[in-house]
Structures are given as structure tokens and as C-alpha cells.
């Protein structure tokens, strides 16, 4: 083509050429497009709120010129007919490209860009460029002239929409960059590259756009190769465990053994520890301490009531609202691939039509398989072999045997009264004081009071209830202290009459100090506020009535203290001996020995005995509550 001859405009240029008139959707008359006003009307009607926007760059009147050999516009025509716009197939066209572009609306960024492109390129290259623009898909066409989907063709440049769009664009570029620089395994990398290619071609309005983008964001956020360095110092670990927890010697010993093996042999295919014991005995908090000693991140996954296997393994991405499972979510939260995961309450996993989560956990907990764990959402394998799993449960009876088999059970028994007192004074009270903004100079809880709380206000193997009661005491004292400060401030003020302050003194002197009495006008209470039994009664109310025979409760306690049948067997032996001792010493009413003998013959080799049955037999045994209580507390009953 010579540079002087008019440039041939390919007929499939995304411009709507109109000749005689256009029948706009919904109208009964053709609108002729011979005037600029009508042209504007047609343009706005056609390009506004319709999918045509993504196809048509502009509307121009068609000038008949038989010399031109341009073809019809089949794709455009068919599309327009489906949109109920009837227009005459364009006649051959003779117009220079620049003239054509000039006729278009220059305020449209795409057109402006096209114009700039035409100005900057050599004329000979223009037909080629245009042809290449036209042969590609709409999206690609638009990309060539560096604009976004023409949904936005009518917007005003420089508006907020523009900025949002640029941000989106930047995000995708960033995402792509992150994928390129991420240290994910090859397989995952391939999937990501494929998905980002798809994402780039997708219009943002497509529901799949958000899904794919979320997926890719998760993929780049996952800690494929990021881990913390273990601090394996057994001596430090021992000190830390001792500082954090009183008693629990057996558990701490086993945990230290476990850590020592890790220190010597950096083979992470160790057993999965499962702490089994009644609530509130510190199973979770030992797990947290293990993470602290190792210098690892800690993440707790509560499994109580989980009855859908997708909770563990995630939903396939084909589902609406699909998301990854808790394991992958946990990894994303902690941001490293070697955290300590505490699988809390594995004994409370449920089962439903949505599958068996315990079965999904089998793969997670098996050191032979978990280096290749595949979450349904990710659909690529993630290596879980660096994760340290610790499970907790109240009983082993409801843990599926296959899962139980994968774990090493460590029993955490309930505490004795003495241990509870020590735990309260070493750990719980300081923690509660700190939480309530109190200092030891403001409150004093003697050991007898703690014993009173334990024996009269709580009935538990652990210390959670005790902790709550101490919290209630701290709250009451906090009110008192805050009120005291307020009154002090009032008395300091010179405008308070002297007599008033004196009167308050008298009231203070004549009335015994009561923690609950907040209506009195007493002076600030004497510090530290001593919590004695009366104060306890004021704050916590009357003690739990001591039931002389509460076999159901105590049998249940016995069960929670010795959840396995072998332990029950030991319990029964202990009971037998207790009976003998009691009978020999003549102390109190001897339990019915005949009934103790009727207790089921549970042996270590008889794991199938349902605990409930045993418990009801225990109830019938007529053993004094105190004896059972002592046994449940782990004390010898004599
Ligand atoms: P569990 O997981 O066994 O139900 P938690 O670990 O949640 O119990 O413990 C409940 C509370 O009791 C925690 O605040 C914990 O610190 C405290 N606790 C339990 N046992 C001890 C202990 N031996 N020493 C110090 N605090 C303890």
C-alpha cells in the first residue's frame, strides 16, 4: 500500500457503522444518524449499560463509497441483531483511518489512546497493527490498545473508578510477581501460573474471578518453605515447663524425653502425643509451653463438635463458598511450616453425612503420609511433616481406634487439694491479679481461703473453676479498690467538710469490713484487703451444699480421673484396700464390702467395658462419697 493512498480500514473494526438509521432496543422507529445530535443519542443508547460496550469502541455514520472493497461486518451484525438493533449492513467505506478516529469521541480514553497510537506509528504499519487487533478476542483487542474492558469506556478519566481499576491491575501484577518469586514447589507453581493466566483473561465481574484470585492469594501466602529455627535446649525446656506448671511430673517427664529425642535426632517422625485427662488440668497450656520451649509458633485447632471432613481437608473449589480446611488455614495464620498444632478435644469429633473428620485426621497425623497432605481446596500437596501435632482429649473411649493407634497417650490425672492450692498461689492468683489490675499490696488470699474455695465452692479434677472463682474475687476487690481511690480523692478535696470525713471514720470503726457492702460510706478499705471465709461468702455466695452421698457425681469424677478401664481396675483395687483399712481401723462407717466385690471385673485386657456400666455399678456400691472423692482426687482413701 502506498503511503499516499487512503488507508483501508478493515471491516471488522469494532466500530458500529450506521447508514440509514438504527432501530434502538425498545423503540418503534428508526433513528437516523445524519446529525451529530442523533449520532450522540445512538452512541449513548448503544454503549450504555449493555454488553455491546465491551465490543464497540464507538458509533460513526457510514458513508457509501463503492470504490472501497470492505467486507460486511458479520460478527457485529449478528450480535446487534440479538440485541434487537436492526441496522443495514454497511456499505463499502472509504475514509482515512485518521478521519475515522477523529469522528469518534475523543473523551473516551480508548479512542484517545488509539489516536495517540496512530500518531506515533508509521503509516505503513497501521493496517498490520489494526488487523492484529481485530483478529484477537475482545479482551486482547483491548489489551493491545492498553485499556481495560470497555465497560468503563464511558467513564470520566481521572475519577475514583480509574484509580480502583489501576489498583486492581497493580494487584494482579503484584500477585504474578509474588508467584514468580515464591518458593513453592514446582507442582504448586505450575498450577499458580496456569491460574493467573486464566485470571488475566477473566472479566472482573465473573464470580470465578474472585475465587481464583483468593486461591492465588492463599497459595502465595502459604509458608511453603518458611520455618522457624528450633531452640532445643533441654535444660531451658525443663526450667520453662517447671515455671509454667506446677506438679504434672509424669507429663513433664514425657515431654522432656520427647524433646530430648528431637534434640539428638533431628528426625521429626516422632509419635504424636495425646494428653488425656479431665478438663482444666492444663493439657492445652502444656501444649502452649512446648511451643514456647521450642521457639515455635503455636496454633490451637478446636475439634469439638466438628462433624464434616471438609473442616479438616477443605472444600473443593467447585463448591460455592469453598475454603481451605483448618490445617491449611492454621498454616496460613502462623506463617511458618513448622508450628505446634494443638488438636484440642479429639475425642469430641463427630460424624455426619458429610464424612468422618477422624478419618481425614488419620492422614494428617500419620508421619508416613503427611508430607504429602492434599487439601481439597488447594488441590496440591503440602508437606506437613515439619508440623508438631499434639492432641488433647478428656477420654480415650470415644477416640476411633485407628486414630488412637497413631498417637501416644499420656494420662494427665486430676490434682490433689494440696497441688491445687500450690497452683492457685503460684500461677492462678498472680495471673488474675494482673488481669484485674490489682497488686499483692491490695489483696491477700491466704491458703486457708484457697482451700475453702477448693473444698466448698468447686468440685472438679482440674483448676478451671477455681480460676473462675479467683477471678470473681478479684473483680469484687477491684470494685472496692476503685471506690476507695475515688473516696480518697474526695476526702483530699478541701471542699469536703471535716465533719463529713469524721463521720465516715465512725461508720468505718463501728461496722465490720464487708467486701460486698458497697453502699456504706466507709473510708478506703485497709490494704491489703484480706479475703477470709466471710468475704468469700459475700462474694461467691453460699458454698455448694455438701451432699453426703453423691454417688453419681463421684462416680463420674472417678471416671474422669481414671478414664481407662485399666485405671478403673486400679481404682477398684484401691477401693477394696480402702474398705479393708476402714473396717480394720474402725474409722467411720465401713463401706459395703460385698458390694465392692460386685464391681465388674475389669482387667487391662478388657478394654471394651463401657464406662457407663461400670459407673452405675460404682453408684450402687454404696462407697462413702468422701472415699470416692479422695480417690477421684488421686489421693489414697486412708
Ligand atoms: P485443659 O486443656 O486441660 O482443659 P487448660 O490447659 O485450659 O486445661 O488449663 C486451664 C487453666 O488452668 C489454665 O489457665 C492453666 O494455666 C491452668 N493450669 C492447669 N494446670 C496447671 C498447672 N499444673 N500449673 C499451672 N497452671 C495450671
UniProtKB/TrEMBL annotation:
* Signal sequence residues: none
The record's InterPro entries line, in alphabetical order, gives: AAA+_ATPase (IPR003593), ATPase_AAA_core (IPR003959), Lon_lid (IPR054594), Lon_Prtase (IPR027065), P-loop_NTPase (IPR027417)
UniProt-annotated stretches for the region Disordered: 497-517, 587-638
**Domain AAA+ ATPase, first and last residues per copy:** 269-414
Question: Keyword annotations for this protein?
Answer: ATP-binding, Hydrolase, Nucleotide-binding, Protease, Serine protease
Q: Where is the composition biased (Polar residues)?
A: 611-625
Compositional bias, Basic and acidic residues, is annotated for: 497-514, 627-638
**One GO biological process term:** protein catabolic process
Q: Which SMART domains match?
A: AAA
Q: Which residues cross the membrane?
A: none
Query: At the top level of its lineage, which domain of life is listed?
Result: Eukaryota
A GO MF label: ATP-dependent peptidase activity
The UniProt entry, under Pfam families, shows:
AAA (PF00004), Lon_lid (PF22667)
The protein here is known as: AAA+ ATPase domain-containing protein
**Provenance organism:** Monodon monoceros
Q: What is the lineage of its organism?
A: Eukaryota, Metazoa, Chordata, Craniata, Vertebrata
